[in-house]
Amino acid sequence: MPKSKSKFFIPAIGAAVVVAGSIAAYTYFKGSPESSSDALGSAKLVPSTALMATYIATDSQAWAKLQQFGTPEAQKLVAKGLEDFNKQVFSDSNISYEKDIKPWAGGVMIAVLPPNPVKSAQLKVPSGAPNLPTNLRQEPNLLILVGIKDKLSALNFANKLKSQKGVKFQESDYQGQKIIETTEKGKPTYSVVLNNSHLVLAPEKQAVEKVIDTFKGQSSFANKEGASSILSKGVDVKNSLAQIYVPDYAGMVQQLAAGSQQAKQLPPQALTQLKQIKSVVAGVGVDDAGVRVKAIANLDPQLNKFQYQSSPGNIVGQFPTDTFALISGSGISRGWETLVEQSKDYPEMKQAFEQVRGQLRIANIDLDKDIFGWMNGEFAFGGIPSNQGVLASVGFGGALVFDTSDRKTAEATLTKLDTLAKTQQINVANRNIGGKDVTEWQIPRQGALLAHGWLDQDTVFVALGGPVADALANGKNPSLNNSDAFKAVTGSLQKPNGGYFYLDMDKTKTVPLVNSLISSNANTITILSSIRGLGFTANSPDKSTSELEMLLALKPKTAK
After folding, report:
1. Model confidence pLDDT, tens digit, residues 525-551
2. Confidence of residue 167 (pLDDT cuts 50, 70, 90)
């Protein structure tokens, strides 16, 4: 982190608190703090024009919960990282976050305001060049509010900061509030303390002025349409570390895209898709399983075309216990139909689909009917370790398993694919595995490249590699859904749900291809050794709500 950026907080915080200290007596600061450093209290000071806001909790108990996880090596690595960060941020000073800032700093809210258009003089357009609209180049506009929970500690810190060298302060007045301009290495930061309960920071003076306007009575983020409900409810996570609030998702994306130098103007079709999502609220917390993230999207039921269907999850039991990665769900055929319907509004997408359809027709395969039409039940894609045959170099193979109510069409499609393989000089042969007939595409001296067969009357599989087909078809191996690892990573995720994304970190690290990518970085290996796995799922209790949940499952501190 460059020093110019790392010192954004410190001079500005000190400058603002100096103002607070100059207008209040010792006994006043010794008094109990106001209830102001929560998300709603901070949001009442954020201008209503804010696109989104993130509230970061400073509750030491919540953050301390993280210390119950990790190997001793990982704990040391994290501790060293924090120590190095502290030294970098507070270099050239005798300030310590732990002693000087932590005692008084309450919750932190970071808000994103609409970008400010760059003035024409800042564009530096060469003479003779065509005039560029100023909205093509816009600057990000951030706003930070820090709750003051202990005013005496804040005053002590402000007095200590006065003795620091290289920091210049300049005061100005706006509506009776003193704004401090803090300059360090030629870069200004603006700050103000409001009601002795909130410190406001911004790299733009205009942003601070807007907060003062809000403090004086103008509309705030807290009473903005769509924001009030998500601020009051938030997301239910234990030991909350952060909450994210987006009251107008489509509007946010539209304005941020307009402010990007690279982004093109959003087409009307894309904007229509974005408007399906009205607002989003997300939370990050820590519980006994690890770090948990939950998000709730409020949808427009009139624009939401996707027909959600929960997945029973039975198909997970078809995979062996050593499966290290898995994605499951249901209703691929319905999803494809929705995508085709939406492609009518996107010429490029529609053209791509038509090209694929045309190429498959050469092999007498209908993309809509023969490929996606019969995939109407549960499905799962999984990664399974193997170091034999064609999989020896990468160390794993893949398997696709589908439940279908249209076995006839599925069998006809697989027969067409077998015929196509034969035209490419691939040997197609049958083999019996665990009493099941399996068709293999064989390569000389390397065994099966691909195999497919039926696990039961309604469940078909396609496997990459003969050993993976063996693991699926013999039915003797313990199943994934009964493994301790799968239960630890996915067992606490919400149910019912639409399926899982699952990753077993321990098994993933044993895959040669993955191991070769991380083996050169000792710190990466140390951190990954503390992670048990990653689980993700989604649910839609009704057409106007979509819920997402992710768990980064961590190993207990005692784990070796």
Report:
1. 778 888 999 999 999 988 889 999 999
2. confident
Give the position of tokens 């948990």: 292
pLDDT of residue 27: 32
218-234, pLDDT tens digit by residue?
999 999 988 888 888 88
Cis peptide before 496 (omega within 30 of 0): yes
State the amino acid at position 309 in one-letter form: Q
Of the candidates 218, 217, 210, which has an alpha carbon nearest to the alpha carbon of residue 192? 210
What was the pLDDT predicted at 419? 93
d(CA 158, CA 181): 15
pLDDT digits (tens, 9 = 90+) for 17-52: 554 444 333 333 444 334 445 888 899 999 999 999
**Nearest Cα to 92, choosing from 155, 161, 156, 159?**
161
> Is the Cβ–Cβ distance between 171 and 162 less than 8 Å?
no
The residues with which 69 forms a beta bridge, in sequence order, are 556
- The pTM is what? 0.85
Listing DSSP states for 396-442 in one string gives EEEEEEEE-S-HHHHHHHHHHHHHHHHHTT-EEEEEEETTEEEEEEE
Give the CA distances from residue 274 to residues 102, 267, 304, 320, 430, in Å, rounded to whole numbers and listed in that order: 40, 11, 10, 39, 49
Cα separation, 470 vs 258, whole angstroms: 53
Torsions phi, psi of 422, nearest 5? -65, -35
DSSP string of 179-245, one letter each residue: EEEEEETTEEEEEEEETTTEEEEESSHHHHHHHHHHHTTS-BGGGSTTHHHHHHH----TTEEEEEE
- The amino acid occupying position 43 is A
